Amino acid sequence: MAAAEAHRIIIYGGKGALGSKCVEYFKSKSWWVACIDMVANEQANVNVLVKMSEAFTEQADQVTADVSQLLGENKVDAILCVAGGWAGGSAKAKSLYKNSDLMWKQSVWTSLISSHLATKHLKDGGLLTLAGAKASLAGTPGMIGYGMAKAAVHQLCQSLAGENSGLPPGSAAVAILPVTLDTPVNRKSMPDADFGSWTPLDFVAETFYNWTIGVKRPASGSLMEMVTTGGNTETSPVKQL
Asked: If you write DSSP's letter for every residue of 49-70 in order, what string do you get?
């Protein structure tokens, strides 16, 4: 009897704080891990390096071609898009255009590329996750660009769940909507915050893993809030209007 085929996963943003934790977690489960980022993650089995570009089509075509060359006919069990970042600013801010452009590139470009990769390389019944934000369920006057970008990711996730979206049969697109992730950068920038209300990266990585193997996987199109209180994190779907 042949040995079981290795599980495969693509982690977009796999060199960031959450991405690195996900690479580490899935490697500990003996999965084959591909990292997509601007900088290589040495823990991953293989890296696809994203080239800086001011044109979405140029960057998207580059990543799509490199992943296709890497995988060939092989399919993956999951694609986790955990790329992103944060920048503030009201509509009056001098940095509005610059920060909004950055947010769009970090969140929307990566999510859209990940979604197209899923149509080409995800197994039937596979999982695609996107990174949304609980704050973007309402207005974000102090962080206009961030709020817009994350709201676009939410809409993309819901569109992918619809009929004829292009995703493989039986697959699911799910967005996570945390409040604040417990990362070194966030701790440094907000040293006086209540860390007990921040969601641990280990929890997110473990949740992703459970969803990939079918444990408590939400329905496709779900926007999953992650709310941490006193160090305990609860995950629940946003109630759709």
From this structure: EPPP-S-HHHHHHHHHHHHHHH
pLDDT at 1: 37
Options 12, 25, 146, 209, the catalytic residue? 146
Nearest in space to 68 (alpha carbons), one of 34, 39, 19, 37: 34
pLDDT digits (tens, 9 = 90+) for 101-123: 999 999 999 999 999 999 999 99
Task: Say if residue 3's pLDDT is above 70.
Answer: no
Whether the CB-CB separation of 35 and 48 falls below 8 Å is answered with yes
Task: Note if 25 is an active site residue.
Answer: no
- CB-based burial of residue 195 (10 Å sphere; 0-12 exposed, 13-18 middle, 19+ buried)? middle
Cα–Cα dist 30/66, whole Å: 24
Percent of the chain scoring above 90 in pLDDT: 88
Residue 108 DSSP label = I
